[in-house]
Design brief:
The structure is a homodimer. By secondary structure, the first copy, chain A, is of the alpha/beta class. Chain A contains 5 helices and 5 strands. A 5-stranded mixed β-sheet of chain A has the order 3-2-1-4-5. In chain A, a hairpin with a 4-residue loop joins β2 and β3. In chain A, α1 crosses α2 and α4 crosses α5 (140-155). Chain A is globular and about 45 Å long. The two termini of chain A are 24 Å apart. In chain A, 49% of the residues are buried. The interface between A and B is large, with 36 and 36 residues.
Chain lengths: 163, 163
């Protein structure tokens, strides 16, 4: 049984989702979010992310990790802050010995819903169905993190270990 | 005597420079670079940065740290990779209890040379003069890191702790 950690990086909320996969089916093991208080001190905020990821790694001992590519669509400034968080998250997972794979938003959506242009709501409904989660998944960042983990379970043999 | 760590983040080479300041004059204490092997595994590469910064912090025990703002001028892709490295470097310094200040390239140049449009070579010559370094400073990333530290020594009372 393979345990996969998906991370959905954000400047305020970083979602995480841990799933188990036997290669054919997957189920959610844990999910949640690391909330980073607003403030001017980016260094301290990044420490909160590192501590949070560290706790998740210790509690759930995943074998592999996956993140989404940085979204470069809209605002360069936001993408840059996100990249700081993503760097810290990837480093923490790698330091714990995990390979960290990276997937595009289209790959994640396509993996969960069957097509890369699926809406966010549709993806979130599919995540619950595919991973056997009865309750609504809150916050939404946790659902998105589970989607990344699910994507990795499906695509890890075709593409793995990429930054 | 205040000990300041300047960090010049890069995707391949991250320079560092440690200076001491008594509030009026500054001198270089140590400088060097963390070299990150090329490769597709960004997580592992970020671990090398974290280990390198950790060693510098342990060896030289700086009181405060400073980095340059991410250069958003040319290539978004390069800026995003840089932001991953910068995130890790800032997190490591903050985790060690240091405030991490951030300065624009113009502030760094202006602080070292007197004007924000100084050329790179001019800045590097001034760094040696201002910090009492007789030999050429190699790699250039280390010189740039010393410049950031010097800038912080000069501007820390007007602007500090910013991300």
């Amino acid at each position: 049984m393979l345990r996969i950690l998906g991370i959905d990086c954000g400047s305020r909320i970083t979602g995480y989702g841990v799933i188990e996969s036997d290669g054919r089916s997957q189920r959610a093991v844990a999910y949640g979010a690391i909330r980073v208080p607003a403030g001017p001190d980016l260094g301290k905020r990044l420490c909160v992310v590192a501590e949070g990821i560290g706790q998740v790694l210790e509690a759930w001992e995943p074998d592999e990790a996956a993140v989404e590519d940085v979204f470069t669509g809209l605002n360069v400034r936001s993408a840059l802050v996100l990249a700081h968080v993503r760097g810290v998250a990837m480093m923490c997972a790698a330091k714990a010995g995990l390979c960290v794979a990276s997937y595009t938003a289209a790959q994640v959506k396509g993996s969960v819903s069957g097509h890369g242009s699926a809406g966010k709501e549709q993806v979130r409904l599919m995540v619950r169905t595919l991973l056997g989660v009865r309750e609504e998944i809150r916050p939404l960042d946790a659902s998105d993190a589970l989607a990344v983990a699910y994507c990795h379970a499906n695509l890890r043999n075709s593409r793995r270990g990429r930054g």
